[in-house]
Design a protein that fits this description.
Strand content: 15-25%
CATH architecture: 4-Layer Sandwich
Number of domains: 1
Helix content: 10-25%
Number of strands: 11
Largest sheet: 6 strands, mixed
CATH class: Alpha Beta
Strand order of the largest sheet: 1-2-3-4-5-6
CATH topology: Metallo-beta-lactamase, Chain A
Radius of gyration: 16 Å
Distance between the termini: 27 Å
CATH superfamily: Ribonuclease Z/Hydroxyacylglutathione hydrolase-like
Order of helices and strands: EEEHEHHEHHEEEEEHEH
Amino acid sequence: MRISKNVCIVASGDSGLSLTGPADCTVYLVDGGSSCALIDAGFTLEPEQIVRNIEDDGIDPDRVDSILLTHGHGDHAAGARWLSLRLGAKVYASDATAAYVSRGDQKALSVDVARDAGLYPQDFHVPSVPVTPLADGSTIEVGDVRLSAIYSPGHCSGHCCYLMGEDLFCGDVMSAGGRIALQDIWDCDIQAYLDTVRKLHGLHVRGFFPGHGAFSLERGYRHFDAAMERIGRLWLPLNSIGE
């Protein structure tokens, strides 16, 4: 589903548009003309539907040559191996996420505690796949489009957003209405999270493309404004998890 000149949504679970499997995050396709990139990779229940959605948008899947992970949690990264092999695409992420996913470190990716909590099936795992690390502030060219990696820890270590001009792909850092995603896992860090929100707020973004829920094509900064209004009162932003 094309939502702007350069952006399509090719996967989205029940926390979004229900285009694909219920546990999928929203997977965006960045169309740079001569090549394309996926932002995140979904959960793997029906990855072939992602390819069909790409085709339905009039895009040759062979144009997709890169997959950029915001982080390594199962709903964002478990599809990376299948899609990488199917599309011949190279996978990129922050240095920490690249290390976790490359070696299939289920503990570092909090798969073990998610299984114990009943969030994942007992046989679920994030398949290992070679991931190329991107440094904070580095850029990747996708045809005529340039994406900049912005390290954004807090939800988990190794979280990375991607800035395309004035548009931000923000993974699980923020959802509509200024809600953050805190959970009881080893690398969720509230102070790092607040620092990330402050940093991203300063970008005053136009397009707001989160990993779950509603997106905004204009005035995306208002979601960060809402979080900062609470932080300014010494409160935490509202939490999207568990509601």
